[in-house]
Each structure stands twice: as structure tokens, then as C-alpha cells.
Amino acid sequence: MQPQTALPQTDLDRRVHTRAPCRVDVREVQGAQIIEGRATNISEGGLYLQRLDDRDLVVGETLTMDIALPLYGVVRATGVVVKPAGDVFYRSAAVRFVELCPLAALRIRRFVYDRGRRPVRGMPIGRISLERAA
Fold first, then answer.
1. Which of 33, 49, 61, 62 is the most core-located residue (most Cβ within 10 A)?
2. Is residue 125 part of a domain?
3. Residue 122: which domain range?
């Protein structure tokens, strides 16, 4: 009998927190310019961000986000871009939260739990404001 070898670890295996699909509008102010996008999923550990302009998100870039979650209020999180992606329509990236207070984590956890019990509708369900670290 041959020994079993470990299977390669997938992105799903590495996830610690449950994610919920969402449609959250994102606005980032850079001087007088407003850049729009959306988050397509969120967890206590981070979110997946799609930008609607052609500027890439760079690995290691720090973003400060105010995330307005319906029924749970606004939570502030600081995140770091960990995995850029994109296609012809969007510049996307996985953003990992590096600063999130316990109350904000609890609100996101409850939001994720509730989103898992209800289907996502076509309307945006919240808003995120981003500030780039200097």
C-alpha cells in the first residue's frame, strides 16, 4: 500500500472566514477625482474589489475603507491588496483586512451570516469609501 500524498492547498482551503456575495458600491477620492467600483464579496478577513476605471491595484497597496452595511452601520477597515486580477472590463483585487476593530468584525460576521440566508438582489446594498495611504 502506497502512502497518501497531501493534495495541493487551494484558495478555498486557505480561507479562514466565511465569505458572502454582495454588491457594495465603492468610491475612492483622489484629489478632485472620484473613482468608482464595487465589492463583490466580503468576509471578516477582507473583500474582493472591482474597479471601474483602468488603474490597477498593486500588491502591498494600503486602502482605508468605510463600509456601510445595511442594518449594521458603517465599519472602518484598513486593508492591503494581496492578489490583483482583472479582465477586459474590470481591474480587480483581493484585499485583506489588516486593521479591523472587534465591533467591526462582529458587524461583518453578522452581515455575512444574513447574506448567506438571503439571495443577493440587483441593487447595491452598501457603500465603501476608500482612502489611499500616502
1. 49
2. yes
3. 19-132
